[in-house]
From TrEMBL:
Keywords, alphabetical: Cell cycle, Cell division, Septation, Sporulation
The protein's name: SsgA family sporulation/cell division regulator
Localization: Cell septum
Alphabetized Pfam families for the sequence: SsgA
Top-level division of the source organism's lineage: Bacteria
InterPro entries, sorted: SsgB, SsgB_sf
Keyword Lyase: no
Keyword Cell cycle: yes
Amino acid sequence: MAEMARTRPVAVQVDTALRLVVPDGSGVPVQATLRYEPTDPYAVHVIFCADLADGDDPEPSVAWSFARDLLLTGLTEPAGMGDVRVWPWTGQDGQVVALALSSPDGHALFEVPTATLDDFLQRSYAEVPAGEEPSYVDLDAVVTELLRA
């Protein structure tokens, strides 16, 4: 019997509500999208959506990109340094993952539902398994992009 060819991996996207932790310890819900693109196999993207009136489609307002393995490590132990840090944490609603983002414009601490993040990562690793990322990098496209600059 002939082997079935693996289908081309697809993007993984999860819309979720994060909790922005404010200085008094309370939280503000923030709509966000977790996105993984097999064409950028080492990275994940968190896209924070603007707060719009009911009935409007959310428009991306801020996007952060960082290493996929940083999120995976952050599920079970502190990971990252500098602009992006991730660690398991007990929040107001139980076990969550803390996501701390820093930029010259300020700092933000978010609580990410652990189950949502774990599901997202499992789906991304099902598309591009750990260690197989180099097979999905289009070096010609990278060189072309670098030469454009």
